[in-house]
Amino acid sequence: xxxxxxxxxxxxxxxxxxxxxxxxxxxxxxxxxxxxxxxxxxxxxxxxxxxxxxxxxxxxxxxxxxxxxxxxxxxxxxxxxxxxxxxxxxxxxxxxxxxxxxxxxxxxxxxxxxxxxxxxxxxxxxxxxxxxxxxxxxxxxxxxxxxxxxxxxxxxxxxxxxxxxxxxxxxxxxxxxxxxxxxxxxxxxxxxxxxxx
Length: 197
What we know:
The chain is of the alpha/beta class. It has helices at 17-23, 35-51, 68-80, 96-102, 132-157, 161-168, 176-182, 192-195; strands at 3-8, 11-16, 26-29, 57-63, 85-94, 107-109, 114-117, 172-175, 187-188.
């Protein structure tokens, strides 16, 4: 991690860029959604909530997605916070990365960024040797997750569940303009002022 160098009365001070951004209530999430990365993100969010409750936080996202449970944990934490969280897509927010993007009160995209939404997949599980009722149980859980994610997208976009199921049946990519039109994003950021939300 690169440092910012400050000259102070005590001499030279080195502060990591991440710490400097956090001090300004800005968080970067630029990795896969998993237990480790989301635990760190939740800690940062909760720290900012304690040190400036009610003040805006900006969460910058460039993520390929990942684990549903881990991503929903972040989504739930953000929904419970008193500090408003705005999200900015700075690359691609795909799958659970897109759900994290949807957690924002304001949701901005840079002009050449994109979002991708789709139904959850079963992952790397193996059905070999499982009985039919065990397979059905796994499918029921997958369909519950599908419904939960579709409800989030529907709530944020104002679309019906049927409309959401249509677009999430396959990987559906949205440019910034398309995401704005569909209701996934609330704005396209075209100047530096918008980037500093």
